[in-house]
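Input structure tokens:
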């Protein structure tokens, strides 16, 4: 979730929380508060069982490479990418990233499902590289931040303070060929409003203002290169799997104007977002809503796959 400004209002959920339980209202966190926050986290699921095992099982079909490891625990948190076989520099490159925010489950599992079921059929036309879980510590602890209370999806710039982002930047820099297409797979969850945005306000010493969560799928394009037809193709494809988020009463989604059905735009590079990690022609950040009563976990995973295939089919029509 990109988390800026929000069509489900969760204000009542927060009325019992006058302040976030860590820190002092109006004061930025220092090392002690960051440590207190880190001490409040715990392992809730297994990166190796739910992600690494699935990646390693793909070795007989694709190239599986380790592109780094997190220093918090290198053996527990190796970073893997999966590449198409028979890499051909005459083909355009497609990058798929998931789990930049580790708690956003369908970004990770949707990327793996795409590899398992759809990737081979597109390898004739593209070189494809997938980094399915950029933030494995976040995946295990179901967190938006890394252990330093730093958001990897605000840290895609030179000398990044987030290892997760720095490792992916290095991977992108090593790619042989031109990255034409980038899908960054995310979710918007109820916990964005009940936990992560209040934590962000507390960390930064600012007042928390309740917002709204959009019910449904939407995409975020790059305001510097929006590619409206590409975004529309993704929305059309996903609409066959799950519902598209409507604009709120202000014509917005999470505080940004809806510029076409299910689409808003952000300045990707300026904000240090993963969506700006390449100079691609076609880029999108997907946002699935897993807490909707109208969507199952499998639908959320399939929505991520549909976003990728809908986008790739559009790009193929332009080649």
């Amino acid at each position: 979730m990109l988390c800026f400004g929000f069509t489900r209002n969760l204000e009542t959920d927060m009325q019992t929380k006058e302040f976030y339980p860590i820190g002092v209202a109006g004061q930025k966190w220092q090392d002690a508060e960051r440590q207190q926050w880190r001490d409040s986290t715990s392992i809730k699921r297994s990166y190796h069982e739910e992600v690494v095992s699935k990646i390693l099982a793909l070795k007989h079909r694709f190239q599986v490479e380790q592109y780094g490891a997190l220093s918090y625990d290198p053996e527990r948190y190796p970073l893997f990418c999966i590449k198409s076989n028979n890499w051909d520099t005459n083909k355009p490159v497609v990058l798929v990233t998931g789990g930049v925010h580790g708690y956003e489950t369908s970004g990770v599992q949707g990327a793996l499902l795409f590899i398992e079921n759809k990737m081979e059929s597109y390898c004739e036309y593209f070189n494809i590289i997938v980094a399915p879980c950029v933030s494995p510590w976040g995946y295990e602890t179901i967190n938006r931040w890394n252990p330093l209370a730093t958001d990897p999806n605000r840290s895609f710039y030179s000398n990044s303070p987030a290892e997760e982002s720095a490792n992916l930047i290095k991977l992108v820099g090593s790619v042989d060929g031109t990255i034409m297409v980038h899908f960054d797979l995310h979710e918007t969850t109820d916990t964005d409003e009940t936990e992560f945005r209040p934590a962000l306000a507390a960390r930064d010493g600012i007042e928390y203002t309740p917002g709204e969560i959009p019910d449904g799928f939407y995409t975020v394009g790059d305001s510097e290169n929006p590619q409206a037809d590409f975004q529309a193709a993704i929305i059309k494809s996903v609409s066959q799997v799950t519902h598209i988020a409507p604009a709120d009463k202000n014509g917005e989604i999470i505080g940004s104007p809806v510029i076409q059905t299910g689409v808003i735009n952000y300045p990707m590079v300026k904000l240090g977002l993963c969506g700006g990690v390449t100079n691609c022609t076609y880029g999108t950040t997907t946002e699935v809503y897993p807490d909707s009563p109208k969507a199952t976990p499998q639908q959320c995973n399939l929505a991520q796959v549909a976003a990728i295939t809908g986008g790739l089919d559009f790009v193929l029509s332009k080649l």
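The radius of gyration is 19 Å. The first strand starts at residue 8 and ends at 9.
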